[in-house]
């Protein structure tokens, strides 16, 4: 028998340690990138709209590939109607996030596990995230203060439409940002 692991201590380390959080985030992104790139061609497509919800697990970093370009932004969550499933998006965008702003999605990857089936693909360039003018304004079908997200997908789904809640009405950042939306076939 191996050493006894105190689950409370491990959980505390992952939740409270910056190093622990970054190890988990980098590991998840690395695992996702390997699995997404190795199986993009499996041809499995979702057969109906799938509502998903999650949180931002990585705010990304300046990747110096153009004017104000941010890489490695990652969201993780699950399908709303399949609590055992999961969804992960990583994106790259150009522009500045905030009220009265719009950023252009440059690309990325996605993976969805839903009803014991895995779907995966890429996030196409050309999508956007549009914030309202202020914390009480509305954009698209989103609640007041939330940004509207629209992105083309390839692989097992064709589009994502959703709402992002990442700023409080006073403009300060919500930790963690929350996202909800629908992936369509």
In a nutshell, what does this entry contain?
This protein is α+β, with helices and mostly antiparallel strands. It has helices at 7-16, 18-38, and strands spanning 50-62, 69-79, 86-94, 102-114, 117-123, 128-130, 147-155, 159-167, 173-184. Helix 1 (7-16) crosses helix 2.
Structure characterization notes:
This protein is an alpha+beta fold. Helices cover 17% and strands 46% of the residues. It contains two helices and nine strands; from the N terminus they run ααβββββββββ. α1 (7-16) packs across α2. It starts with 6 loop residues before the first helix and ends with a strand. Mean pLDDT is 82; it is low at 1-41.
Kindly list the characteristics that best describe this protein:
46% strand, single chain, disordered N terminus, 9-stranded antiparallel β-sheet, alpha+beta, 185 residues, 2 helices
Q: Report the β-strand fraction as a percent range.
A: over 45%
Count of the separate structural domains: 1
- Assign an overall shape: globular
**Would you tell me the overall average pLDDT?**
82
Number of beta-strand segments:
9
Main beta sheet strand tally, sense and closure: 9 strands, antiparallel
In the predicted model, the low-confidence regions spanning at least 5 consecutive residues are 1-41
Number of contiguous helices: 2
**Helical proportion, percent range:** 10-25%
Using only CA atoms, what is the Rg? 17 Å
What would you call the structural class?
alpha+beta
- Ends distance: 48 Å
Instruction: Give the H and E element order.
Output: HHEEEEEEEEE
Which quaternary structure do these chains form?
single chain
């Amino acid at each position: 028998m191996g050493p006894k692991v105190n689950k409370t201590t491990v959980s505390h380390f992952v939740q409270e340690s910056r190093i622990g959080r970054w190890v988990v985030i980098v590991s998840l992104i690395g695992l996702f990138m390997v699995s997404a790139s190795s199986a993009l061609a499996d041809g499995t497509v979702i057969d109906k709209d799938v509502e998903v919800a999650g949180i931002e697990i990585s705010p990304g970093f300046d990747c110096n590939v153009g004017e104000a370009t941010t890489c490695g932004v990652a969201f993780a969550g699950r399908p709303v109607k399949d609590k055992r499933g999961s969804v992960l998006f990583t994106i790259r965008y150009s522009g500045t996030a905030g009220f009265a702003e719009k950023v252009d999605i440059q690309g990325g990857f996605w993976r969805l596990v839903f009803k014991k089936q895995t779907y995966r693909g890429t996030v196409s360039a050309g999508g956007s995230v549009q914030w309202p003018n202020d914390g009480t304004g509305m954009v698209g079908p989103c609640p007041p203060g939330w940004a509207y997200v629209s992105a083309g997908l390839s692989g097992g789904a064709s589009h994502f439409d959703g709402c992002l809640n990442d700023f409080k009405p006073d403009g300060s950042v919500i930790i963690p940002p929350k996202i909800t939306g629908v992936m369509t076939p």
